[in-house]
Amino acid sequence: HTLSIGVGDAVKIVKEEGISAFEEKIVDFSSRFRAKYLILSLDLEEIALGILRPQGLELVVRNSLPRVRSYKENESIREHAKLVFEKAADILTKHVERFGKVEGLIILTTPLLARWVHEDFMPLLKSIKMREVKLLTVSEGGLAGIYEALRGDELRKIAKNLRLLEETKIVQELVQQLSRDAKNIAIGPAEVSKAVEWGVAKTLIVLDKLLFKDEKIHRTVRKAAASGIDFKIISGESEQGRILEGLGGIAAFLYYPLEGYG
C-alpha cells in the first residue's frame, strides 16, 4: 500500500501485539540514561557541588572556607553558617544553567547546619527552578559528604531513576559474588547463553554497546526477556561498564550452577 503523507501531518503507528519485555527495557534504559541530579554538600569549612550523571559523579566546585573564629557562642556559628549559605547559593546560581535539565537538587549538610537550612538557606534558592529539592544529613559536609551519601541507601531512594546507582549496586554484587563463590555466576556470551537455554539464569547484566552490536548477545538477551528473565543494561561509559566489559560484556546470576547440566 502507498501512504500519502504531507508536511506537518501527524501519523500514529500502532503495533498490534504490543511492546515486548525486551523493547520495554530498552525504552526504559534510553529514557533514564540522561537523568542527572545536582548534589550540593555544605560544611562550615567547605562547599562542594557535583553533578551525578549515569556515567558517574562530576565534581564541579570544591571551595574551602575560613574557619569559624569561635565555637563557644552559637550566634557566631550561625552567622558564619549564613555566609556559607550565601556562598553556596551564589555557586549554585552560577552553575545551574550550564547543566540543562536536571531531575533535582540534593542538599547534604551536617547536623549542625541542618538546623538552619530551611530558615536561612532555602529562601536564597527561590530564583532557581528545580523540580525536586531534597535534604539529607551527613556526618561530614563538603566532598567527603558527597562520597558518604553515595555509599548510603537514602540517596539511592531519592535518585531511584538515575542509572549510576543501580549499575553500581548490581555490578558490586556481581564482583562480590565472584570473589566469594563463582559457581552461581555465568560469565561471557557462551556461559550466559547456556544458562538462558537451560533455564538456570535469574538475572542478566549486559553492556549496552554489545547488546546492540553483538548479534549473539542480542539473541541471548532477547531470548531471556521472552522467557521472563530480568536483564539490566549497563552503560559502557561508566566505571561499572568497564568492569563488565573486562568480564566479557555479559554476565548472569544463576539459580543453580552450570555444573551438572547438559
Total number of strands: 9
Low-confidence stretches: none
Distance between the termini: 49 Å
Kindly provide the name of the CATH class of the largest domain. Answer: Alpha Beta
Helix share of residues? 40-55%
- Count of individual domains: 2
CATH architecture classification name of the largest domain: 2-Layer Sandwich
* Strand ordering within the main sheet: 3-2-1-4-5
Binned strand content: 15-25%
C-alpha-based Rg, rounded? 24 Å
CATH topology title of the largest domain? Nucleotidyltransferase, domain 5
Oligomer: single chain
Mean pLDDT across residues: 82
Helix and strand element order: HEEEHEHHEHHHEHEHHEHE
Structural class: alpha/beta
Q: How is the biggest beta sheet arranged?
A: 5 strands, mixed
CATH superfamily of the largest domain: eRF1 domain 2
Shape: globular
Number of helices: 11
Description:
The chain is an alpha/beta fold and 262 residues long. The chain contains eleven helices and nine strands. The strands form two sheets. A five-stranded mixed beta sheet has the order 3-2-1-4-5, with helices on both faces. A four-stranded mixed beta sheet has the order 6-9-7-8, sandwiched between helices. It is globular.
